Amino acid sequence: MSDSKQRKIAFIGSESYPFVKTGGLGDVMYALPRALTRKGASVRVILPYYNCIPEKYKRHMRFLGSFMMDLCQDGHTYFVGIMETELDGVTYNFVENREFFDWGNPYTGLWEDIPKYCYFSKAALAVLNYLEWIPDVIHCHDWQAALVPVYLRTRFEPTPVGQAKSVLTIHNLRFQGVCSIDHLKYWSGLPDYLFDYPVFKVNDNEANMFKGGLAYADRITTVSATYAEEIQTGFYGEGLDSHLRYHSPKLRGIVNGIDVDIWNSATDALLPSPYDIGSVIERKKENKLALQASLGLDEDENRFVIGLVSRLTDQKGLDLVNAIFQRIIDEKTQFALLGTGDPRYEGAFRYYESVNKGRVCSYIQYNEGLAHQIYAGCDALLVPSLFEPCGLTQLIAMRYGTVPIVRETGGLKDTVKPYDAEANDGNGFTFDNYEASLLLNAINSAKALYFDNRGRWDEMVRRDMEKDVSWEKSAEEYQALYDDLAEQE
Ligand code: ADP
Ligand code: GLC
Question: For the chain, how long is the longest CA-to-CA vector?
Answer without folding.
Answer: 71
